[in-house]
Amino acid sequence: MNLQELNGKLSQIKDKLIAIEQKTDKRIFLSCEAEDAYAVNKFLFEDAGCRFVIATGIDSDDCFEVLYHFAYDQLGCVITLKAFIRDRQSPAIESIAPFLPAAEWIEREIHDLFGIDFKNHPNLRRLILSDDWPQGVYPLRKEVKK
Amino acid sequence: MGWKTWSLKRSPWVFHVNAGACNNCDIEIVDLLTPKFDVERFGIKLVGSPRHADALLVTGVGTKQAAIRLREIYRQTAKPCVVFCIGACACGTGIFQGGYHVAGPVDQIIKEVDPNAIIAYVPGCPPKPEAMISGVVKALSVL
Amino acid sequence: MKQILRKPVLAVGPIHPLQEEMEFYQLTVDGEKVTDIDVRISYNHRGIEKISESLQFDQVPFLVSRVCGICSASHPLAYVQAVEELAGVKPPERALYVRTIINELERIHSHILWAGLAGHFIGYDTVFMWAWKYREPVLDLLEEIAGNRNQYGNVKVGGCREDVPDELKPKILNEMDKLEKKMNMLVNAVLDDPILHARLKGVGVLTREAGIKYAVTGPTARASGIAIDVRRDDPYAAYDDLDWNVITQPEGDVFAKVVVRLLEVLESIKIVKQGVKKLPGGPITTEVKEIPAGEAVGHAEAPRGETFHYVRSDGGNRPVRHKIRAPSYVNVPSFKASCIGANIADVTITLAAVDPCYSCTERLAVVDRHGSILQDYEALLALSRQKTERIKKEIDTPELKMEDV
User: Fold this and answer.
1) pLDDT tens digit string along B67-117?
2) Which residues of A touch B63 (CB under 8 A)?
3) Is residue C388 one of the residues assigned to a domain?
4) CATH number given to B3-142
5) Residue-by-residue DSSP string for A120-137
6) Does any domain span residue C314?
7) Nearest to C325 among A54, A100, A139 (CB)
């Protein structure tokens, strides 16, 4: 696919997206609500043939964000999908690990560090915090100081 | 000086422990075995078990998860033994100071098990192999 | 999940000095076959992303080059590229060349390091000693340029800190020529050796489909026919000015990974020689006034694969969020695809074949269905070497022919 075709592809899911921002030829930022993230991620991986790179959890003041980074290597393009989780009390989002094993570890890590629940994750246990790390303390949340 | 200490000084057998390091110090330690430095000619031997070791070469900050293992390894090491803190992280947590998952530095972790532990420091990031050899020789000559 | 990890870990087996980091692998077996595999990480988690938020933008490269000592040039480069994108900064051309030279020298020493370890795992300690001997001049060059064999501290937002002095250029070219001869010898010895063929071909296969599902990167991907390389796909530094090839192999087995890495060393030598010859004049740094609010990504091809950094700023002088993804994070979990169904004698080399940033099998235990420990790391390493010995007897050829060139 060339860039025009890629953009055409992305517009196929625009009903699920809040915005599409093309910063440069090689950097595209999409945003959506948490409920739509599963469908968009599936589309990016299966339909658009993008490679999953990693996911980033962010504690923004009024919500949590999970950013899914994908690469479309033929064009050297990085596509980042920002999913907004509005419920700060019990943040949760659908896991994409069932169709994308590459996301298993990072979802466990975000769960450890932010306390976000990944629904239907095949194996949501502790990944990177120590065995004796206290439950309920999420080190990358803003309220936890260095 | 007892015969145990004498034999330790003549040909120290060392056991390497990575307590949460970035691998730089570790690969420089392994480098000691290779032809350019070849520490075996000094009688310094890397062994596969702490029970056979006279000295521990510890790298890394001592993460919370690794600290548990490190204490256990120290307990299992035959005494007398010298703990070498190799690298800035082991000497004083270096650039990772204050990190939420850092339990170190290494000397604090070891002293929880044995307040009278013999600890030597080889700073650097990473210390050059020559510095490590020099540190080991210097510490042993003081024993 | 069996809590077997809680048994006195030392009863399981010693930390082998060549297994640099602590990780705990647990294999479940049925006879000689692996039926499941899991790993406990965390021993190395230092909370770097949080520490980054308390440092200023220009202090962060020193932190992230210590994420992994063997990819220590790639992490700060990926980070700095993200910040430069955010700030709209373009480093001068000479800086791009210096970055390229240092990163390729790192790739060379890293791949040769790995070749030595791989030799050790299958019982070819001669390869280990020779490989690490060849590596030394490369480390010496890096020390002459940057002041340190293994941590360069050379990248900053806007350019580089240390230049490649013009007087050093003939020496770099000379060392690369010498290394090229030695690498050609090693490559030929390895590619032709029937014992290595028998030991490594068809072992630890990661299929292309599995590679895509696990999103692997670097030589692990390229050895499974997935032709991706950040240096070509999203060129950075000076890579699109220079003439070099992306190396791929279709088989996906351990042998393919060996071939890819060894041939990549030869490509890196080419890149370094061209980089040095074409090194443009001019400054190595450009002024950066401030980092505006915004977000950006940066990636670089580390020896193990794509290193990816995401940076968000609110206009202040520290990153608000800094996400770091090392290549091993996606490569290591692919063991689920390459080890399950495999023979336990092949596990140590299969795990090592992705060149994990921790030298894997540190803590490696084989458990039966009831969770009792059957074999420890030493036992597994012994199995691997015994298999090589068996093959040597069957094939009845002399050991790998290495010559001093």
Assistant:
1) 988 998 999 998 889 999 999 999 998 889 989 999 979 999 999 999 999
2) 130
3) no
4) 3.40.50.12280
5) T-TT----SS-TTPPTT-
6) yes
7) A54
